[in-house]
Specification:
single chain; 309 residues; alpha/beta; 4-stranded parallel sheet; binds magnesium ion; DHBP synthase; 10-stranded mixed sheet; binds threonylcarbamoyladenylate; globular; 18% strand
Length: 309
Amino acid sequence: MSGKYATETLHVEEGGIACAAKILRDGGLVAVPTETVYGLAARADSDAAVAKIYAAKGRPSFNPLIVHVASLAQARALAEFSPVAERLAQHHWPGPLTLVLPRRRAADLSDAVTAGLDTLALRMPSHPVMRALLDAVGLPLAAPSANRSGFISPTSPTHVLASLGGRIDAVLDGGDCTRGLESTIAAVRSDGSVDILRPGPIDLGLTAANAGSIEAPGQLESHYAPGKPVRLMASEVAPDEFWIGFGAIQGDCTLSDSGDLTQAAARLYACLHEGARSDKPRIAIAPVPQTGIGVAINDRLRRAATPPN
Ligand code: TXA
Ligand code: MG
């Protein structure tokens, strides 16, 4: 770990939620557990606090953040909920669905959160520790995934510390993330239509819109990068490759022995982190079926395999 912060690990059984809430209210940065991935949280109403998120991650300022809320009432104060948005929120919140909605002009939000867009991305997470934290803070929290920009997302406190140790105030330990893939992002249009900007754990039965569009600026082609070449659809492996297996293909790390896609999603980033740490210079990944959450897994794998430019 290096950097100007002595990053603390906070534990729930030792008053960690109250401690994290105080750091956040005071404008600090805390990595927080959610059911999808760990987020890097700051109070969403403070320019100074939100600026720290971009600095710690090395995130380009044009890439807006998701705001996490404790309640639908809190969300309605920040964005305009059409009947379609209202139905989606009622049905899927708390849970891994992010809604992109028209931002309320008067909302008490730092402009850096939306990176100048008229829309706001909102989500109510289901992780019990995150819910308790949001209640304790009493403010909406801006939180991108808690990794350096462009690298693999974190699904454990260890992953967070490897990427951001020394650059943030604390990480609140909520165990391993159960879903393991970032939320589905759905934009609700004024005509009531819905576009999927990022596939994820919630399947709305729609095909993802053209990823990488200006509208979802964070959906850059190269992302989730383990820092070495990644080869997809590998049914055999070279001696210098770290093999990530699935189903009948047993690798150095296997996403799911039984071919279960939910388990594969939960283990995906842990396997990529392991491959990144291994002394093998390259990573090969077995085919993953393009059904259900397999669509979101393959979306992340394709970006992990795209070299940074
Ligand atoms: O599961 C998740 O969504 C996690 C946890 C921590 O909640 N968060 C997450 O944040 O994945 P991040 O920053 O890694 O990805 C957020 C994505 C980015 O691609 C960003 O461009 C997009 O959401 N986004 C944010 N606000 C947007 C907006 N107003 N319109 C379109 N895309 C937006
Ligand atoms: Mg991210």
